[in-house]
């Protein structure tokens, strides 16, 4: 077997399949493009789903790629096992209706065993096949020459995820030798399918030949009209086998990151500390790639996943003595290590470091909040035990590893159950699996639509009406028909209706002919690039070959066009005001408004937003001509045109240029001159995730209406302030608020004086209970905040003081309690006092030992609550 680097193995794989006529598909962004069913691209095939279900036609029916992927469903195993990762590269070759089982198996075998390529010893390879897949078994034995004694037949070798394309698969395993077989079980490990480190899966070939449906028996699955091949091989795993690494982490893909971490840490990469190093190395790759591909930290969706990955790495850093932010320092190491194949990482190093450092610092604060929650839960623990739900919440939300929670709890005499924690973890995994079974499934192939190749021309850039002939009709179930009389879909040889794409909504409008009245509800693109119209027939019957007159809703199209053009100007202005790091993260253009999402690490200030709006309107008033050109993609790139990072483009692209202020790849509809946009009014700017922002704006008359509405509001304010007009109204309002602020300060000062007097007066009513001085008092209608202030004053002036206030307001009752330092030492816990009283009054609550508040719903039991608290304090 050849000794190769990770980069050499990746390139060798791509070179091999290029020699076999495969198009090398550039790896897709980790963020799925136009696929809301996935959080991340999680396999080589994930970015190619549109080819497998037949919704799009690839440029070549033979494809190979090296696809970066993220999976976090087994994150707790990363670092613990030899082969689990959150970020990994999947090497794959795919056939879309081209070659099938025979060739796919032979390709895999030749690449792995041929001396020209990997040169792996055939005797060290084992194969598994689906029990009923006679042809795969025959190819392995008769064509590839694999000894039948090295082949396992198993029912597990069948790949399907819900409904859609799937089929039997065949896997190749590598025998790592006796040193990975401590019990000397040999081939029993493989043939009994036992979990082991000796026989390691290298390659999986999926023969996608059935339209799977788990609701029926597998033998009743129908054959697909287009059979496909989907293979996958983990680069990290193959590199470990070639380099004979103890684990995937002991290879040149990870060791430079581990050594850089080791230089900062207090403990070496050995023994009990190996897992921490491996977690950090894996997770910093995940975070670096995800951020570079446009993801952001947030509290939901992929941003939450990313935050959890980073926090897990930071937690393991603590085990190595890395108490200060350190992960951000590893970003350049990752970028340098992966530069050969992913040079774009270098462009994002500085920005990624800034985001990661801020996130690390924020997590330090979160750990403190989690500690406070844990302290509170320990104080409320029943039967001396923390519930599994609490322990898992601390792990999942606040980043507390089970061991840390266990250690802190045991210091207080509280036990935790690993079984309860594992039960909660399994529930989360089950929820994730259920979600994936639904979301990750492929759509079923529509054979008739896939095979319909008759051309359809879009002329809607220049025409809003046109005549076209119906060349295909599909009913509501997607079945091709000759006539249609209610709802369905139609394709014409020529259309002026824009199909939804690039963030621009589809056109609506009508088709008509003698006796026919058709409403166009939606327009999408088929895999063969035709525009397919979803229609509702209000009168008459549509028949194949019929000529129709189409009319786009002009008012909506012009409004949408102005909004779309304005997003281009908006991006240009944002770059000018906020910096070159700004890039589009999404957009939406409809008749009513425009929406533009972009990456930015902080809130846009009011002054910056006003400047962006001013610049956009300056661009509009400059009346820049807007040109649209079709040009070769390389020429377009050299011209400086901006492209979406994760968008896939063909050999030629459409470039939209607006004067000298904007030049972008775009297939959408645009104005002829920026002056046609009329006006731009930014409606809102908001966060849609950590470091991800969204601007909503309006143009043309809709923008004027918003300006007019704000003007009317100012006039109402002026009228309320007894002013004759809006001139200088901002100064008047500012002065009024200053007066209110000064008055509030005076009121607060008077309140403080009252609280001081009340404290002194009520302190004389405290009773000596021996170890503590106790003041229990009922009040009515007082502000809970004021009561807390009085409690603070009382316990600050007497360390032995225990204060317990009962504040009633109708049927509701609030309990506020506080204890001085000596009282707490004597065993007083204010949180437990208010909780006990609240429960008597049909409520609940709690808090810290020295200060707490709780509420009850039944004021009739106040006396009972007071008696209970009195007796408890007397018993100290």
Q: How many angstroms does the end-to-end distance come to?
A: 77 Å
Total DSSP helices: 24
Rg estimate, integer Å: 34 Å
Mean pLDDT: 88
**Integer tally of domains:** 6
Shape verdict: globular
- Strand portion: 15-25%
Q: Which architecture of the largest domain per CATH?
A: 2-Layer Sandwich
Tell me about the largest β-sheet.
9 strands, mixed
Number of strands: 35
CATH superfamily of the largest domain: Bira Bifunctional Protein, Domain 2
Helix content: 25-40%
Family: Belongs to the class-II aminoacyl-tRNA synthetase family.
Cofactor: Zn(2+)
EC number: 6.1.1.7
Pfam families: DHHA1 (PF02272), tRNA-synt_2c (PF01411), tRNA_SAD (PF07973)
Can you put this structure into words, describing what you see?
The chain is α+β, with helices and mostly antiparallel strands and 876 residues long. The protein folds into six domains: 6-253, BirA Bifunctional Protein, domain 2; 255-358, no CATH class; 381-443, no CATH class; 447-552, Elongation Factor Tu (Ef-tu), domain 3 (Beta Barrel); 564-700, Threonyl-trna Synthetase, Chain A, domain 2 (Threonyl-tRNA Synthetase, Chain A, domain 2); 749-874, Diaminopimelate Epimerase, Chain A, domain 1 (Roll). 38% of the residues lie in helices and 25% in strands. The chain has 24 helices and 35 strands. Strands 1, 2, 3, 4, 5, 6, 7, 8 and 9 form a nine-stranded mixed β-sheet that branches. Helix 4 links the parallel strand 4 (125-130) and strand 5 (151-154). Helix 3 (101-113) crosses helix 4 (134-143) and helix 23 packs antiparallel against helix 24 (862-874). It is an enzyme of class 6 (ligase).
């Amino acid at each position: 077997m050849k000794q190769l680097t990770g980069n050499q193995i990746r390139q060798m794989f791509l070179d091999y399949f290029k020699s076999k006529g495969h198009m090398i598909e550039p790896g897709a962004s980790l963020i799925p493009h136009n696929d809301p069913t996935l959080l991340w691209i999680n396999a080589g095939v994930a970015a190619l789903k549109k080819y497998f279900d037949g919704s799009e036609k690839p440029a070549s029916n033979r494809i190979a790629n090296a696809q970066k992927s993220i999976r976090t469903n087994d994150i707790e195993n990363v670092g613990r096992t030899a082969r689990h990762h959150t970020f990994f590269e999947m090497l794959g070759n795919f056939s879309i209706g081209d070659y099938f089982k025979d060739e796919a198996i032979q390709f895999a075998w030749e690449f792995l065993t041929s001396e020209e390529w990997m040169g792996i010893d055939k005797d060290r390879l084992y194969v598994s096949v689906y029990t009923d897949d006679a042809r795969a078994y025959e190819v392995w034995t008769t064509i590839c020459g694999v000894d039948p004694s090295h082949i396992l037949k198993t029912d597990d070798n069948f790949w399907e995820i819900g409904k859609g394309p799937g089929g039997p698969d065949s896997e190749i395993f590598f025998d790592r030798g006796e040193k990975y077989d401590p019990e000397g079980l040999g081939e029993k490990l493989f043939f009994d399918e036992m979990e082991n480190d000796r026989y390691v899966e290298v390659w999986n070939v999926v023969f996608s030949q059935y339209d799977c449906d788990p609701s029926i028996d597998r033998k009743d699955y129908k054959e697909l009209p287009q059979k496909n091949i989907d293979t996958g091989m983990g680069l990290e795993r193959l590199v470990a086998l070639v380099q004979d690494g103890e684990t995937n982490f002991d290879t040149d893909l990870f060791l430079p990151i581990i050594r850089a971490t080791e230089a900062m840490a207090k403990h070496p990469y050995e023994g009990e500390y190996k897992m921490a190093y491996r977690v950090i190395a894996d997770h910093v790759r995940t975070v670096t790639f995800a951020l570079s591909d446009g993801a952001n930290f947030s509290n939901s969706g992929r941003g939450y996943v990313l935050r959890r990955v980073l926090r897990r790495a930071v937690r393991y850093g603590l085990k190595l003595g890395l108490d200060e932010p350190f992960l951000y320092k590893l970003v350049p190491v990752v970028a340098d290590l992966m530069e050969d194949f992913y040079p774009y990482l270098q462009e994002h190093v500085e920005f990624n470091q800034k985001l990661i450092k801020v996130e690390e610092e924020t997590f330090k604060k979160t750990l403190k909040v989690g500690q406070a929650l844990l302290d509170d839960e320990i104080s409320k623990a029943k039967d001396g035990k923390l519930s599994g739900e609490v322990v898992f919440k601390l792990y999942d939300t606040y980043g507390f590893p089970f061991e840390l929670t266990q250690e802190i709890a045991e210091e207080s005499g509280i036990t935790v159950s690993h079984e309860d924690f594992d039960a909660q973890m399994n529930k989360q995994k089950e929820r994730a699996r259920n979600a994936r079974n639904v979301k990750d499934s492929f759509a079923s192939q529509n054979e008739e639509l896939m095979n319909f190749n008759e051309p359809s021309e879009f002329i809607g850039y220049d025409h809003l009406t046109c005549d076209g002939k119906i060349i295909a009709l599909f009913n509501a179930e997607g079945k091709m028909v000759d006539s249609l009389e209610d709802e369905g879909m139609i394709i014409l040889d020529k259309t002026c209706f824009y199909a939804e794409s690039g963030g621009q909504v589809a056109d609506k409008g009508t088709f008509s002919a003698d006796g026919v009245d058709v409403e166009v509800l939606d327009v999408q693109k088929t895999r063969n690039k035709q525009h397919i119209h979803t229609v509702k027939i209000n009168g008459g019957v549509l028949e194949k070959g019929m000529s129709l007159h189409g009319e786009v809703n002009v008012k909506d199209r012009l409004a949408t066009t102005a909004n779309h053009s304005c997003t281009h100007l908006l991006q240009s202005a944002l770059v000018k005001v906020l910096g070159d790091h700004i890039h589009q993260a999404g957009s939406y253009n409809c008749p009513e408004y425009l929406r533009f999402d972009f990456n930015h690490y902080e809130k846009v200030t009011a002054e910056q937003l006003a400047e962006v709006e001013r610049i956009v309107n300056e661009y509009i008033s400059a009346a820049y001509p807007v040109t649209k050109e079709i040009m070769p993609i390389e020429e377009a790139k050299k011209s400086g045109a901006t492209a979406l990072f994760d968008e896939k483009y063909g050999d030629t692209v459409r470039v939209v240029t607006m004067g000298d202020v904007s030049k972008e790849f775009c297939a959408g509809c645009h104005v002829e001159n920026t002056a046609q946009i009329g006006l731009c009014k930014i409606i809102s700017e908001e966060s849609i995730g950590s470091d991800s922002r969204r601007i909503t704006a309006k143009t043309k008359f809709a923008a004027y209406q918003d300006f007019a509405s704000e003007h009317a509001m100012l006039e109402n304010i002026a009228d309320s302030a007894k002013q004759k007009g809006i001139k200088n109204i901002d100064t008047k309002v500012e002065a009024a608020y200053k007066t209110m602020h000064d008055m509030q300060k005076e009121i607060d000062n008077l309140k403080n004086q009252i609280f001081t007097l009340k404290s002194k007066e009520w302190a004389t009513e405290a009773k000596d209970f021996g170890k503590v001085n106790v003041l229990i008092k009922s009040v009515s209608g007082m502000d809970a905040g004021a009561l807390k202030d009085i409690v603070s004053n009382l316990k600050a002036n007497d360390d032995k003081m225990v204060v317990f206030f009962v504040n009633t307001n109708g049927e509701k009752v609030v309990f506020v309690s506080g204890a001085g330092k000596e009282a707490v030492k004597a065993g007083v816990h204010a949180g437990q006092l208010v909780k006990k009283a609240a429960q008597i009054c049909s409520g609940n609550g709690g808090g810290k030992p020295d200060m707490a508040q709780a509420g009850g719903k039944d004021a009739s039991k106040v006396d009972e609550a007071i008696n209970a608290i009195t007796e408890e304090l007397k018993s100290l």
